[in-house]
């Protein structure tokens, strides 16, 4: 309740309320000043409210006192139970743990005010899970309550935990959660065989490495604690077998390590030990973590193939051995109780096998063809042995035959050498080291010897020095060599081997004389370099040759241009005269003008061919063919020319100017009429042609023609 000292109780004072929750959570009586809560309060939602109150005059509405602020606190009551926010819980603890082993800590939260009363004071207890586990009532830590809890007996436990407020007193609120606890495995159990003796039956034909049986030891532990290792205890028959562990089933797989033979031994007995791989030292006192069992194996008799006396046969034969010679034998036996005879034959795979034969009964191997070591040095084939009583049972063995060498090839120089000697070489200088090779298969310790041939030993040029280690050196015997005198030397070298019979060969080595510097470095071995100065390099030589070639080209071009210019001057003069004659509708250049018209066609009309291209005009790309009637022999030339004239008149492709092809005679047919002196009133003797010589070189030929005094035939047509 709010009250002002100015309030006389006559209703002149009015109380107002403002602030947090005013009008929604709290209300005030304007006359008495009483404050009331108009809805339920929750401390966990809002623990306090800040409000402001004021007294005002009812008539004037003016404050009678300054505004005052006050706080309303919400007092807590126990209306919230404890809650496990992280539940339900999952935990684990190793089996066989001691009492009090830590498992898990749980925690419950109470929303009530922990500073007021016991509303938020929580106490923990176990409702389900005793007597195996216990819990601390204040901290909520869960621990084991019984010793030696065995996972193999019970693995899963469900514990119900309660948290109660008000300190666990009567009337307090409570909450619960579940804790699922699993016992984890430890290696507390050794492996045990379910029986002490295992019996196995194995056929003697079982292959080496194959599995012949399985045994199993039981371990109640789990995971890696149940992993078992099996071992064969050394003893009777244990060396023929091996045992491994199947990782999926933890079984011991017995495998055959060596072949079995019923005829040799019919039964084997040995012991197998099973032990854990991962031991726990805390349980050593329980006893040894291993167990043993006896394994008895009975070998079953089987019909087996023949067995060769050796796993492989190696034989030797000389390459010149005659056909049919026995070089060795193979032997196979039937080891079964009822021994059977054996037959032999070669396993034919290729043509190489045909070089040998085998006796089917005795197993002896003989040559079938002549052998050549240089062609094939070794033969590798298989021989099959089968039982007569059961041919399907066969065995195979490899036979290697080495062909021994007979010394039939002489030694030769191993590689072709390019030997050179300096012009300034000194006597005794080694210019080449040579080695030899022999196509024969050289036995251990074979040696090659080197020497000069008899005809070369007397020459004072080179010698051969045998180093006695299958190599030799070519040495000089002269003080200097000259390429100008002799560029190449041919040295015959005789090489002998040490086999019997001794084989030898003469090998000719080519030695080239080269120009070298003072240190012996080769500068040039070319023939043309002999005639060059000593200090002239290859680049300078190329430059000189290039300059000579360019000068020759210039000279050739100059001579060609001079000849062409002289020829053009002569042709230009002739063409000018001809062009002038044609231009002025005159006849051609006379008998000397052989380019304008072929006079042979006039003298022998038979040489005319159909569609012959004219020489005085440029032919068109397309010409209409003209059919000419054949000309009979002894036809008058005038008739022939008239015929040609008519053809040109009707030919649309003929040129529109006169030429020798169109007008063969001067006179009537020419617009300029005749320029000849045939019909002239004056004679040639009345004319003086000396002035033609003053007209220059273009009229030189014309001046020469009229300047000469010759007899003239007026009937000759020019």
Automatic annotation (TrEMBL):
Q: Cadherin domain: which residues?
A: 4-84, 85-193, 194-308, 309-413, 413-531
Gene3D superfamilies named among the record's database cross-references? Cadherins, TCF3-CBD (Catenin binding domain)
Q: Which Gene Ontology cellular component annotation is one that this UniProt entry carries?
A: catenin complex
One Pfam entry for this protein is CADH_Y-type_LIR
Molecular function as annotated in GO: beta-catenin binding; cadherin binding; calcium ion binding
Q: Is-annotated flag, keyword Cell cycle? A: no
Q: Where in the cell is it found?
A: Cell membrane
Keywords associated with the record: Calcium, Cell adhesion, Cell membrane, Cleavage on pair of basic residues, Glycoprotein, Membrane, Metal-binding, Phosphoprotein, Repeat, Signal, Transmembrane, Transmembrane helix
Q: What is its main location?
A: membrane
Where, by residue number, does the polypeptide cross the bilayer? 530-561
Could you tell me the membrane topology recorded for this protein? Single-pass type I membrane protein
Biological process (GO) annotations held by this record are: adherens junction organization; calcium-dependent cell-cell adhesion via plasma membrane cell adhesion molecules; cell migration; cell morphogenesis; cell-cell adhesion mediated by cadherin; cell-cell junction assembly; homophilic cell adhesion via plasma membrane adhesion molecules
Keyword Nuclease on entry: no
User: What role does it play?
Assistant: Cadherins are calcium-dependent cell adhesion proteins. They preferentially interact with themselves in a homophilic manner in connecting cells; cadherins may thus contribute to the sorting of heterogeneous cell types.
Protein's recorded name: Cadherin-12
What organism is recorded for this protein?
Answer: Stercorarius parasiticus
